[in-house]
Design brief:
Chain C: This is Tripartite tricarboxylate transporter TctB family protein. Chain C: It comes from Mesobacillus subterraneus. The complex is a heterotrimer of chains A (331), B (502) and C (160). Chain B has 502 residues and is mostly helical. Chain B has helices spanning 2-14, 17-35, 41-52, 57-82, 91-102, 106-141, 144-161, 166-181, 206-224, 226-231, 244-266, 271-286, 298-322, 328-339, 348-351, 353-383, 389-408, 411-429, 435-457, 469-494; strands at residues 183-184, 191-192. The termini of chain B are far apart. Chain C folds into two domains: 2-73; 77-159, no CATH class. The longest helix of chain C has 24 residues, at 2-25. In chain C, helix 4 packs antiparallel against helix 5 (103-118) and helix 5 runs antiparallel to helix 6 (123-144). Classes of the chains: A alpha/beta (331), B mainly alpha (502), C mainly alpha (160). Chains B and C meet through helix 8, helix 9, helix 17, helix 18 and helix 19 of B and helix 1, helix 2, helix 4, helix 5 and helix 6 of C.
Chain lengths: 331, 502, 160
């Protein structure tokens, strides 16, 4: 009796498995060999190279939920963390260049192309749209003697290497930006890398280091609570949230740099497809709900069309390359 | 007064149908990922965060927090039953939990762990309410120099724990440190010990090593004596909760463990891991029968579980009040909050008092739910041990495979885990303690980074380590840890007493 | 104990010497800005390991005379009879097969072989257990946890 029951259970299990696996393979096996005219005719996937919850993941999910109605197809977000983005990038590059797989990339790409992922090229990825622009900024503790960029530069010039500046990573966009700033101001400071951007801020607050290299969006709360002063932002113009904070440019340093976030497809994707995606995503960015999200998360509009985006990446890539070679980072 | 008002409001918010339902989902998912080897709160959160999209912030956040402490709760189960720790914090639970299982006392061990976890979790939630504003700044006082000393101190304690051979314990610790070196240098980005292997650039994940050393290593050495294992069954699991006398025995370790957990949990970094190791070594030092530690003493289980659950409350404080994630799990949790449009940080309690307090209240409720759930399901869980060991072993190998694979979704980690299985088997057979290796592997990177950061900040002068009251206090404790045993040994020899086990 | 310790001590000493050599090839010292170079910490640890290994070797030599336990007799015959070695080999074969056949198929094969032929459970039981373990874990990870498992080089070719 017992045996019989067991057997029938086994058979049931097997059947169930077959049915489920059958269904899933049907869905996956449907390959796309359609003409470009009716793109997209199936769901589009955005690959995110972090765990859910990172800034870029939040952005991708917002784009997905709002963008569906403009694209006319569901947008799915998939997280493929690991290898500083290498896992996700490798995955995207292994897909067809049919525009159905997007990658949510950040400025980190530029640094990675120069260091850990030097086997990829700038044109391995085709930019679709740049969405956010999170300018870099320098923050100091409320008790710091520095009140503006000049104070900092003056002090650093007299005491080379004495100023300790900290922020995320040893080969991150922050690192390269900090070195570029030092270069342009012809000063020398000591870079203290941390595992997370917020560690730099807490170490400034705790008095362990002098300057935090971070973003206004991260520091906003601490500015409101009065713990942090922002010395300068690396944007073209002053930010509406911080009308009192001068840009680097107006304080005499020609430095504009940001942690941008945008969407890419595999290099070699046909132009019409890129344009369809770009147009739908641009409408998404203009959606009131998206604008509201940008505001609550303290992000700034960083829109660029594919061509502008491509050029700016190429420029950044060369600038970073020069910095990496000059300072021997990652070697 | 205001606090009480908020607490009552939080209680009312928690006991709405929707919130309660999501709370239960959260703790349940947490418990499940905690039980599965290699998966921790990060996986659970990653699973549920997409679900919270468009949800009300309160039930969503209550659920996500539930995953976090639910996973800590669940971690004990596999550590005790199969010697397979799911995360670094649960490693300590295996020291005494698994020997208890081998003695047929799995029920008692899990019961003790449940009590330890419950009390640790509840008390640390109370401490958040009482101390959050005061202690938040403590996290700021810990700069690179203080971290360096704290981590070095925990290494010293763990090496000192070894009862058989301090030399082997030291070798184990140094091997862990060596493994921690593999990958990109955290300060300059230089690849080290990678020998041109791209996969090694990010270093070796702890999960891979722990699954290899503990799970695979254990299976290899048990199957060697397979004939004996076959006959071993749990027998009747009548006893789950400790009796009065045993309860008294574990109360001290739980009290200390919870406090250590909360305080160390406050510090961003590997709070849960350091605290469970510290709590265990203090419990051993203050126990009446230190020799039975590592051979199946419930005090050890209680100390470790209360500490790693106590650290959850501690880690919530800097996350909520400063917006600083203290661990990978809290970082993901923080991200989850950002998706909900909440920005934790200094203004969080002021801007969203309702949400903040509901989350804290829900932690009490969630822990009580976990306690009830565990008590009810425990007997069922333990039945798994009745399954013949051969089948268990096969299942564990496959689960370990999946755990290692999940780290990077690549087979490289799986093979690496196999290699660590062999290493684990060898070390175990020759009486090398595995704990120092695990601790130094997890914290070695932090030690090096902070040491070098501290020196960078002080322009290369070692004065950096003697500047703050915290550093000096920690250094004095470290000195005492070294000096006292030597002194004891000396005085014992003087009085002609026989030393048993140093 | 003694003999194994002596040998492991020697092996570890060699490892630490190699590691010292490697560490020395990395940048050493401290820059004028107070940044410790990447090689310093590895050197430190390798020297520590060398010291401990030498102590272990000496202890092993001393302990040789009073051999309390007889583990670690390495010779070819005992190696071949060693169950644990076979198990290790089996585990690695399983991992390798996954590369070709994918997770599900190789797990079914591996579990069935080990349960039925190695541990000699009854055929019906073995089948039942195999299905439960393989499909159970497969669905928990693939569907519930959404964790794409290896499909194997051979099978992906057939499906596409």
């Amino acid at each position: 009796m017992k045996r019989k029951k067991r057997l029938s259970f086994v058979i049931l299990m097997v059947l169930l498995c077959l049915v489920i696996s059958g269904c899933s393979s049907n869905a996956n096996g449907e390959s796309a060999k359609k003409s470009k005219a009716d793109f997209p005719n199936k769901p589009v996937t955005i690959i995110v190279n972090t765990n859910p919850g990172s800034s870029v993941d939040v952005m991708a999910r917002k784009v997905a939920s709002i963008g569906e109605k403009y694209l006319g197809q569901p947008i799915v977000v998939e997280n493929k963390p690991g290898g500083d983005g290498a896992v996700a990038m490798g995955y995207v590059l292994n897909q067809k260049n049919d525009g159905y797989t997007l990658w949510a990339g950040t400025k980190t790409l530029v640094g990675a192309l120069n260091t850990t992922l030097s086997h990829y090229k700038v044109d391995s990825f085709q930019p679709v749209i740049r969405i956010q622009d999170d300018p870099f900024a320098l923050g100091v503790s409320k008790d710091s003697p520095f009140n503006n960029l000049d104070d900092l530069i003056m002090f650093a010039k007299e005491n080379p290497g004495k100023v300790k500046i900290g922020g995320f990573g040893s080969t991150s966009a922050h690192t390269f930006a900090a070195y570029e700033f030092m270069d342009k101001a012809s000063i020398e400071m000591t870079w203290i890398p941390f595992d997370a951007g917020s560690d730099g801020i807490t170490n400034v607050m705790g008095g362990h280091i002098d300057v935090a290299h971070s973003n206004p969006s991260t520091m906003k709360q601490f500015v409101e609570s009065g713990d942090i002063k922002i010395l300068s932002v690396a944007s073209e113009e002053r930010l509406t949230d911080f009308p009192d904070v001068g840009t680097y440019k107006e304080q005499g340093i020609d430095f504009v740099d940001s942690q941008w976030r945008g969407l890419f497809v595999k290099g070699g994707t046909p132009n019409d497809i890129v344009n369809v995606l770009h147009d739908a995503l641009k409408k998404t960015m203009e959606d009131p709900e998206f604008i509201e999200y940008m505001k609550t998360s303290n992000q700034y509009d960083g829109y660029m069309n594919p061509e502008e985006f491509q050029n700016s990446i190429q420029k950044e890539y060369e600038a970073t390359k020069a910095i990496v070679e000059k300072n021997g980072i990652g070697k | 007064m205001e606090t009480i008002q908020y607490l009552v409001g939080g209680l009312a918010n928690t006991f709405t149908f929707q919130t309660l339902l999501y709370l239960i989902i959260g703790v349940l998912v947490g418990q499940i990922v905690g039980i599965l080897p290699g998966l921790g709160p990060v996986t659970g959160l990653a699973l549920l965060i997409p679900m919270t999209f468009g949800m009300d912030p309160i039930p969503a956040l209550v659920m996500l927090t539930g995953v976090y402490y639910g996973a800590m709760f669940g971690g004990a189960l596999t550590s005790i039953m199969f010697n397979t720790p799911g995360d670094a914090a649960a490693v300590v639970t295996t020291f005494d939990g698994y020997p208890l299982t081998k003695q047929g006392k799995a029920g008692l061990a899990i019961g003790t762990a449940t009590i330890g976890s419950t009390l640790g979790g509840l008390v640390s939630a109370v401490l958040i309410v009482l101390l959050a504003p005061l202690v938040a700044k403590l996290a700021l006082a810990f700069g690179p120099a203080e971290y360096t000393i704290l981590i070095a101190l925990s290494f010293l304690l763990i090496i000192g724990l070894a009862s058989k051979s301090k030399v082997k314990s030291g070798i184990s610790a140094l091997l862990g440190l060596m493994l921690a070196l593999i990958g990109q240098d955290p300060i300059t980005g230089t690849p080290r010990y990678t020998f041109g292997h791209f996969e090694l650039l990010q270093g070796i994940d702890f999960v891979v090593v722990a699954l290899g050393l503990f799970a695979i290593g254990e299976i290899i050495s048990s199957l060697e004596n397979y004939k004996e294992m076959k006959d071993q069954k749990v027998g009747k699991v009548t006893k789950i909760f400790p009796n009065k006398q045993e309860f008294k025995q574990i109360l001290g370790p739980i009290r200390n463990g919870t406090l250590i957990g909360f305080v160390v949990g406050l510090l961003p970094g590997a709070g849960a891991t350091i605290s469970s190791f510290l709590s265990y070594s203090i419990a051993k030092k203050s126990s009446k029968s230190p020799d039975s530690f590592g051979k199946g003493n419930i005090e050890g289980v209680a100390a470790s579980e209360s500490a790693n659950n106590g650290s959850v409350g501690g880690a919530m404080v800097p996350m909520l009040t400063l917006g600083i994630p203290g661990s990978n799990s809290t970082a993901v949790l923080l991200g989850g909050m950002m998706i909900l449009g909440l920005q934790p940080g200094p203004m969080f309690f002021t801007n969203y008092p309702e949400i903040a307090w509901t989350v804290i209240v829900s932690m009490f409720v969630g822990i009580i739910i976990l306690f009830l759930m565990n008590t009810l399901l425990l007997r069922g869980f333990i039945q798994i041990l009745r399954v013949p060991y051969s089948i268990l072993a096969v299942s564990i190998i496959i689960l370990a495979f999946l755990g290692a694979f999940s780290v990077n979704r690549s087979m490289f980690e799986v093979f690496l885990m196999g290699a660590f299985g062999c290493l684990g088997y060898f070390l175990k057979k020759n009486d090398y303690p595995l704990a120092p290796l695990v601790l130094t592997l997890v914290l070695g990177g932090l030690l090096e980074q902070n040491w070098r950061r501290a020196l960078s900040i002080s322009d290369g002068s070692y004065i950096a380590f003697f500047q703050s009251p915290i550093s000096i206090t920690l250094l004095v404790i470290g000195l005492l840890v070294i000096v006292i045993p030597i002194f004891k040994k000396f005085s014992k020899k003087q009085s002609g007493g026989k030393e048993i086990n140093v | 104990m003694g003999m194994t310790d002596f040998r492991s001590g020697l092996v570890l000493s060699v490892i630490s010497l190699v590691s010292i050599g490697y560490a020395l090839s990395l940048p050493q010292g401290i820059t004028n800005m107070g940044v410790l170079q990447p090689g310093v910490f590895p050197l430190f640890i390798s020297i520590g390991l060398l010291i401990f290994s030498i102590i272990l070797t000496i202890q092993g030599l001393k302990g040789k005379k009073k051999q309390t336990e007889g583990i670690g007799q390495f010779n070819m015959i005992s190696l071949l009879q060693n169950k644990s070695l076979l198990l290790i080999a089996g585990i690695f074969v399983y991992f390798t097969v996954v590369l070709f056949l994918g997770f599900l198929v190789s797990t079914i094969i591996a579990v069935f072989i080990s349960i039925h032929f190695v541990f000699k459970h009854k055929l019906s039981n073995s089948l039942f257990i195999t299905l439960i373990i393989s499909f159970g874990t497969y669905f928990i990870f693939q569907s519930f946890l959404n964790n794409k498992l290896p499909e194997g080089i051979l099978l992906t070719g057939i499906i596409q």
